[in-house]
Amino acid sequence: MAVLTENTYKPLTVESAINLAINLQLFTNKENLVCKEIGDGNLNLVFHIVDNEKQKGIIIKQALPYAKVVGESWPLTIHRSEIEANALKTHGEFVSHLVPKVYHTDKTLAITVMEDLSHLTIARTGLIDGQNYPLLSSHVGEYLAKTLFYTSDYALHPFKKKDLVKQFSNPELCKITEDLVFTDPFFDVDTNDFEEELKDTVREIWKDASLKFEVAKLKKQFLTETEALLHGDLHTGSIFASITETKVIDPEFAFYGPFGFDVGQFFANLIFQVIVRTGEQRQVILNHLEKTWDIFQTIFTDSWQKDCLEPFAEIESYLPYILGKIFTDSIGFAGCELIRRTIGLSHVKDLDGITDIKVRIAAKKTALKLGRACILYRHKINGMEDYISFIKQNINE
Ligand SMILES: Nc1ncnc2c1ncn2[C@@H]1O[C@H](COP(=O)(O)OP(=O)(O)O)[C@@H](O)[C@H]1O
Ligand SMILES: CSC[C@H]1O[C@H](OP(=O)(O)O)[C@H](O)[C@@H]1O
């Protein structure tokens, strides 16, 4: 039908999405199909098609030629759809159980047809509702260790790695991160978004030259360290979870960047829950932080011992140096994420969803204070136990 024979891009509708699914022979009978557009993210359309009789569903994700959250005044390459599908496939080679299956892609239409994960809950939503997902941190620790190690120079022939660096060149999406995570929140620019009550605290950030110097160093790392194929946007809204399963979605920001960036983004998005929870419920999330790093280190080390191609791997201090650098960098990147999701463009519901303004402002001030401390003092934090004490101290003071 039309949608497959036209050789030009067109945004799908619920009708054309159904036609596409039939043409692709993913379903046989159109009559039983129900299609809804369920996209709740900042950028894309997401169609959920279900065959009510067979209880079977699929997802068709389509990139719009602009950022949905802002509109057509913010044009954005639809090539991000191909990047996302290829990242799902590449990461899927190492962690097939932790990412959705890709059934079909189309560059012209900028679509990825993939496994329906609607039996799971977006981790951010579940965590805000008080769910704990006991396997979340083990699964994400494994995802991080395997996707990062096996796409790096430590596991790939240099020609293959450099081919991947080219294939995953993603300048427009990286520019969003460069601006929204590493630049805008630290300057008085229009894209920033915060309550009047935070104005004084934010002005302090803008005036803080030592903080800005450290952010400049972290931004430089993001710009220049082509270490591994990152997810690029690993917040808890990009993770589906249940008590038994975890699936990482939405790697449209994928590119070759520093090991610590994905780890840091995940840390920060757990830390928002540390900030908003209290008592035992807070401890559950602190345990997730600890477990993520523990599993990450263990699997990264096993992979290094089994599969490292680097002759210098035999030097005893080399792996501890790499792991130490990832840890320190990830704390710095987490600090940037804590600040940008609080005062920059595109917030998190963990904080914005707090209805009591006093409680919300207090939580946001804590996020800013902790973010600043992570960036400034990351080199002084010696291991996860120390990091957890550091977080507790900065939250309680
Ligand atoms: N494979 C999937 N299965 C079920 N629902 C999905 C799937 N992928 C995305 N969604 C739904 O669509 C929403 C937006 O998807 P996402 O990939 O995060 O889009 P965006 O890139 O616009 O942020 C998710 O929050 C989720 O509710
Ligand atoms: C242009 S909005 C910026 C923000 O949008 C992305 O979020 P998502 O695709 O998960 O909705 C990403 O976090 C960007 O920083």
TrEMBL record:
E.C. number(s) listed in UniProt: 2.7.1.100
UniProt KW keywords: Amino-acid biosynthesis, ATP-binding, Kinase, Methionine biosynthesis, Nucleotide-binding, Transferase
Pathway assigned in UniProt: Amino-acid biosynthesis; L-methionine biosynthesis via salvage pathway; S-methyl-5-thio-alpha-D-ribose 1-phosphate from S-methyl-5'-thioadenosine (hydrolase route): step 2/2
Keyword GTP-binding among UniProt keywords: no
GO annotation, biological process: L-methionine salvage from methylthioadenosine
Catalytic activity: 5-(methylsulfanyl)-D-ribose + ATP = 5-(methylsulfanyl)-alpha-D-ribose 1-phosphate + ADP + H(+)
Cross-referenced NCBIfam families: MTRK
PANTHER family documented for this protein: METHYLTHIORIBOSE KINASE
Originating species: Heyndrickxia shackletonii
Pfam families: APH
GO molecular function: ATP binding; S-methyl-5-thioribose kinase activity
HAMAP family listed in its UniProt record: Salvage_MtnK
Family the entry assigns: Belongs to the methylthioribose kinase family.
Task of the protein: Catalyzes the phosphorylation of methylthioribose into methylthioribose-1-phosphate.
UniProt-annotated binding residues for ATP: N44, K61, E115, D116, L117, D250, P251, E252
The Aminoglycoside phosphotransferase domain, residue ranges: 35-269
Oligomer and partners: Homodimer.
Name of the featured protein: Methylthioribose kinase
